[in-house]
Amino acid sequence: MPRRSSLPVTFVVPTLVILLILSMVPTLYAIVIALQNRELSSTAYSYVWFSNFVDLFFDRRFLNAVWVSVKWEVVTVVATMAVAIGLGVLMFEVASPRLRNIYCLLFIIPVLLPRVSAAFVWKFAYHPLYGIATYPYRLLTGGLIFDPLSKPATALFAVASVDVWQWGLFFAVIVLKLLETLPPQPIEAARLDHARRWQIHAYVTLPMLKAPLISLMFVKMIESLRSFDLIYVMTRGGPGVATETLDMYAFSQGFIESGKVSYASAMAVLMMIATVITFTMLWKRVQA
Amino acid sequence: MKLGRLIGKAVLAFAGFMAVFPLLWTALNSLKNNVDIITRVPRVVFTPTLANISYIIGRDSVMTGLYNSVIACGVAVLIGVVLGLPAAYAVARYPNRWAGDIQFFVLSLRFLPPVAVAIPLMVIWLQLGLYDTLAALIVTYSLLTISVIMWLAIPAFQAVPKEVEEAAFVDGYGAYSVFWRIALPVAARSLIGAVAFSFVLVWNEFLIALMLSSSNAKTLPIVASELSQQGMNVPWGILNASVVLLSLPPLLFLGVLSGFLNSVFRQKKT
Known about the structure:
The complex is a heterodimer. Chain A is about 75% helix and about 0% strand. Chain A is mainly alpha-helical. The longest helix of chain B is centred in the N-terminal third of the chain and has 34 residues, at about 60-95. Chains A and B meet through helix 1, helix 3, helix 4, helix 5 and helix 7 of A and helix 1, helix 4, helix 5, helix 6 and helix 7 of B.
């Protein structure tokens, strides 16, 4: 390949320096703010060191938010992967090449929507009186009211369904493309052994795709953490605290309710540490 | 077996319907008067009106939001292209012992919770006197666009056949002109996909824009979300129209992005 050249240095160094500055300054500053007692309403502050973090562990709303975030991660990641694999395999099995293309195009549309748009579309669809999604229920029960977004038991699932609508359908396209890249010989061999279709996929194709499927799941785990916009528009963390995830709680502590910027930042820092450690470990394992 | 296939086709058709129907319904609602939207039985036949759409287009706040979104996202993507593409090329073509670490660093930027970045940035921009300006938004979004474009462009450059570049070197091209005249044009299709993807990402961004703007620099998603908080009498038709306006630009990239996905997976085959 190329001989000695200044290209790698001139191309990489400026970009990396800018990325480092843009990422490290806010990250380090988040930690500094978390150790202080800043509030939005005043400019005075002093260092309180770890007392914000200690307070967090006695804050029941914070503990609830941790629990809601864990539930949110599990529900959205599992449901997205199930929808993606189910629809991907279905397309592979029963759709002609032309139909596949049409479905792929349709399935990409939801993920392109801004999450604010998706949230509005579904918030109105779930409206108990006028919503299109609750209409079948009103029709069947003769006008009874079903209000999924304002019941603590169903609110989280109703919001999660929008997330799965966006990502599950999109990932189904990727699962189909992955299936299409597989060599056909093992599938034909299994067919000659009279394996049923579901057996072929459960024991042959999906195990062959284990590595890319785990990477997909990894991507979804990261993206699931960014569901603030969906929850902000659809429920604002409510009813009560039923859908209040960590970023929602940090936002309302820092900006809506009390303006405790430092307290919010302490929460964000804990979140950052937890995600960086978890994802770094997972990533190293996926790569190994 | 026949029955199984039939059920499978029905499930797929239902999923395809579910993918677009909520959107089509929203588009339909944006053409309705409020009386036709607030009905217990959904109404398909109605007298269409352009009042909602003209209200949206005529509103200053919406137009300012649109302008802010276009400028902030456009400039941030431009910065991402100028800084991200060359860096991605260098990482892809001049491997050294840091290449793996650089790739992991770029990916790890995606782990950072947006709140954790937005809170300190708000304080920093306030202190610099740049809070609620487009400049602050552009700088913040650049972190996103540079890293995403780099992440997606590295494999795109790696997929360019090495022989083509080597032939160019033999013909006496320098390292920079090989990048300009060979690598960029050959990888162009995948690169456009990567750039489009980064645009969709910042266009759809909400939390950072919400926290870094209060009046002047509000982007379209923020303006749209505020429309819903206009008291008890929710203007559903207007809301639906603003959702349609907000969703149009990312949907314009539909063709580019599906082509991008196809090219990514075709490379894996070989």
